[in-house]
Description:
This protein has 498 residues and is α/β, with parallel strands linked by helices. 39% of the residues lie in helices and 19% in strands. The chain folds into 2 domains: 10-55 and 274-314 and 333-441, Vaccinia Virus protein VP39 (Rossmann fold, 3-Layer(aba) Sandwich), CATH 3.40.50.150; 70-262, no CATH class.
Amino acid sequence: xxxxxxxxxxxxxxxxxxxxxxxxxxxxxxxxxxxxxxxxxxxxxxxxxxxxxxxxxxxxxxxxxxxxxxxxxxxxxxxxxxxxxxxxxxxxxxxxxxxxxxxxxxxxxxxxxxxxxxxxxxxxxxxxxxxxxxxxxxxxxxxxxxxxxxxxxxxxxxxxxxxxxxxxxxxxxxxxxxxxxxxxxxxxxxxxxxxxxxxxxxxxxxxxxxxxxxxxxxxxxxxxxxxxxxxxxxxxxxxxxxxxxxxxxxxxxxxxxxxxxxxxxxxxxxxxxxxxxxxxxxxxxxxxxxxxxxxxxxxxxxxxxxxxxxxxxxxxxxxxxxxxxxxxxxxxxxxxxxxxxxxxxxxxxxxxxxxxxxxxxxxxxxxxxxxxxxxxxxxxxxxxxxxxxxxxxxxxxxxxxxxxxxxxxxxxxxxxxxxxxxxxxxxxxxxxxxxxxxxxxxxxxxxxxxxxxxxxxxxxxxxxxxxxxxxxxxxxxxxxxxxxxxxxxxxxxxxxxx
Length: 498
Ligand SMILES: C[S@@+](CC[C@H](N)C(=O)[O-])C[C@H]1O[C@@H](n2cnc3c(N)ncnc32)[C@H](O)[C@@H]1O
């Protein structure tokens, strides 16, 4: 229904919930993101509490756990279609050789329209060269935009945000008109559940309606690019390619709606037998910070978290396009985000701040989790210090390791770290909440000969292993003995030995 980075495989999470809790017990995820843990907890008849700093994550979670009358959704879409389809399409209509045409896609190259795909009454897809009229239609649309966000973004070259760039700069003036009309209409929907669904539909439309959609050019075998273009899709970052698509806003919205409708079917299958009163009683969503939980002490039976991994995904910065359009950005608590960011205006978001806030989040978990209950954390990181610092937090708060196992993704996914040697599985580290104060800190073992010996043994049994499998095996083996080998050493040694 909606993209969110870091979504976890649901079937894997339910395994942990069922292992560590019984029916009606309370599961907490204080970094709940799009709510996978919560949905799995409810599905297994547990109670759940989800906390996240990111407002769009809250909306995704909320919609994902609410069954809804599909006919109401369909009727609302028909109404929106009736009111806006022809208005929005009028921004893309022009006469070519006396024939009425509707532009579906414009390919911009260095700010010039170079290729236009359009439909006529006789054909769904025709292609022509860009014309001066395409510039006029896109830059000086015939309708005035209603409200749209011109929120400033944090300059950050890592996610391609330049100085003084604003959310509105990601769109053409024509796209801003279409999207602003949709937002205006959606906000008039009275029924909150239905309104939320369409807000999410609009938010999910934004990337495909923006200038972030790159052009995929087929390549001939000899490397010379062919003229045939295909539509790419936004993955991450705010990079506006020199050659990008501008897609008809109505089509983007309608396509997204079809996907949302499919998602609603799935939600209804899961939650059809649980009415709103049941969900209200069993699920609590808190748009707040994991570092200060409004939750009673010793009231939670199991914690499963998947916190941000240092600087890998800048959740709030990446979500600003969504939050700004839905006007959810006003009260964002940027300071509490547990993140390492290179943004110039977020200089305090460094490794120290990350560890300090994560430590506070751990102390909150310690406070709310009942004694002798389990705390699991998904973890995927290659940085030596992040590993050891995180492991030390567990020790600091008396959490004793009871299980370590990989979290398997069913398919390769953009949310995973696909860098060379990246850990292709997350680990789930599970710990028992004890009052022990004598726990020894986990330390690095720098014995390179021992490391080599271990890797050789692992590879002897599993010659097909990749670096990440070796790392999995090593962590599983060594952590219970109170040490780990540095991930950077493991990667280096593997490179020598494999
Ligand atoms: C790896 S994602 C979680 C994804 C989630 N497991 C899912 O399935 O969608 C980490 C989340 O931590 C949130 N976050 C960062 N700092 C936070 C804080 N101080 N309190 C609560 N949530 C925070 C981010 O907004 C992000 O949604």
